[in-house]
Design brief:
The protein has about 425 residues and is mainly alpha-helical. It has helices spanning about 45-60, 80-90, 100-115, 125-140, 145-165, 175-180, 195-210, 220-230, 235-240, 270-280, 300-320, 335-345, 350-360, 365-370, 380-390, 395-420, and strands at about 5-15, 15-25, 30-35, 245, 250-255, 265. The strands form 2 sheets. A 3-stranded antiparallel sheet has the order 1-2-3, covered by helices on one side. The protein has a 3-stranded antiparallel sheet with strand order 4-5-6.
């Protein structure tokens, strides 16, 4: 049996951390055995106990040199919010519309990143979210609803971090309703009677007849499409004649805000008349925009609002004043006409699933809460609405007769010109 065995515990600093080892004599040789790293739990006291066990084994002659100790893995650096949010946006950008991408970038670069960019993900606590919200309120640069939108974006980003187990929990999921500010609900305008819809379209038609030939903006057809097909402004400006199936009375919406927005919309009879007349007048190619500029470019939404809707609304109010009738609702926007379309369909007896299909919605609650406004149910109002959409109102009939008269005059004029050329 080996004679006296003695040794000591040693610790030294390495690139991987402080390593703890034993130094002793065994079987006539000096031995050096690495136990492990402080990060792996090797304290001095634990090493002393192991030394006594090793020396006892040496005295009994049963000790054998252990396998080499593997260094601990390099710790993974916690990503910053800036790095993770940038990665998150890059991943989802291909699924977003250009305007949505711009909106998300604005929320990140102007608000979330200036506050959270240097935070590690685990440092974004409930208290930090509350501090961010308080700072935004103090700045007085954003409305309550805009602050809430940035909080929604923060929650979406941290949801992904939570799914990937980068954080213990998403602080935005803790009493999410309390995290949000109380925001006033903006008034959602719409037109609630057939007479107002007719007058708006008539006013647009007057402006069309007064417009210069080199600036052909079909205001009546545009407002008719917004009001009687419920298109979003982006869907309207992107609509091409190849999407318009007059024979099947369908509009195909291929560019939409959501996947559900890609849909087919029924062309109601009065809208069919408007689009047929516009197509006959312009003689377009299939790839031409239905409501393009004089150069065939896409109309800007601001032009539709200012030059089409606002001017038509002003003229309509003048017509209504002459009739001693109430003016149109204030604050009308192109989206007001989309709400008008939904309300009109409900008033005509369409079911909620049918209206959702026409609007491109998947959430029935949204359709019913926001879009299912009650059209005025005065005596005969439903009959007037049905006459309006079927092109049977007195205004539409007069306009159709005038159109046929103009078409006959053009045909006679063309025939006279042809006869003159042949002599």
């Amino acid at each position: 049996m080996p004679r006296d065995a003695s040794g000591q515990v040693v610790a030294r600093k390495t690139v991987h951390g402080i390593v703890v080892a034993l130094r002793f004599r065994a079987y006539g040789s000096r031995r050096y055995v690495t136990l492990g790293y402080r990060e792996q739990g090797w304290t001095h006291a634990k090493a002393e106990l192991e030394l006594q066990n090793v020396l006892a084994d040496v005295r009994r002659g049963i000790w054998r040199p252990p396998e080499p100790v593997t260094p601990p893995p390099e710790p993974t650096a916690e990503p910053t919010f800036h790095a993770f949010a940038s990665e998150w946006l890059a991943e989802i950008e291909p699924t977003l519309r250009p305007n949505t991408i711009l909106d998300y970038r604005w929320q990140l670069t102007h608000h979330l990143l200036p506050f959270f960019k240097d935070h590690r993900l685990f440092q974004i606590s409930v208290a930090e979210v509350d501090r961010y919200r308080a700072e935004k309120v103090r700045e007085q640069r954003l409305s309550a609803s805009s602050i809430n939108k940035t909080l929604t974006r923060l929650g979406q980003i941290l949801d992904v971090a939570d799914e990937r187990e980068l954080i213990a929990r998403n602080p935005m999921s803790v009493n999410r309703r309390r995290r949000k500010l109380r925001a006033s609900v903006p008034p959602r305008t719409y037109i609630d009677q057939a007479a107002h819809i007719e007058t708006l379209l008539a006013a647009a038609g007057q402006l069309d007849s007064e417009a210069r030939n080199d600036r052909p903006t079909p205001r009546r057809a545009i407002l008719c499409t917004l009001t009687l097909a419920g298109l979003r402004i982006g869907e309207l400006t992107a609509l091409r004649w190849s999407d318009v199936d007059l024979a099947g009375s369908r509009l195909r919406i291929g560019e939409a805000k959501t996947h559900a927005g890609i849909r087919e919309v029924r062309i109601l009879p009065v809208l069919h008349d408007e689009l047929s007349a516009l197509k006959a007048k312009t003689q377009p190619e299939p790839d031409d925009l239905v409501f393009g500029t004089a150069r065939g470019k896409q109309q800007s939404p601001s032009n539709i609002r200012r030059r089409v809707l606002d001017r038509s609304r002003e003229r309509a109010d003048q017509l209504l004043e002459k009739q001693k009738a109430s003016p149109l609702p204030g604050g009308l926007t192109p989206h007001s006409l989309r709400r008008t379309f939904a309300s009109l369909l409900f008033a005509l007896g369409y079911s909620a699933p049918e209206v959702m299909e026409q609007l491109g919605h998947t959430d029935a609650r949204l359709t019913l809460r926001i879009y299912a406004k009650a059209m005025r149910q005065q005596a005969g109002e439903r009959k007037r609405l049905r006459a309006l959409v079927n092109g049977e109102s007195s205004t539409t009939k007069l306009r159709r007769k005038a159109g046929r008269r103009s078409s006959t005059i053009r045909q006679v004029t063309s025939a006279n010109h042809a006869a003159i050329r042949s002599t």
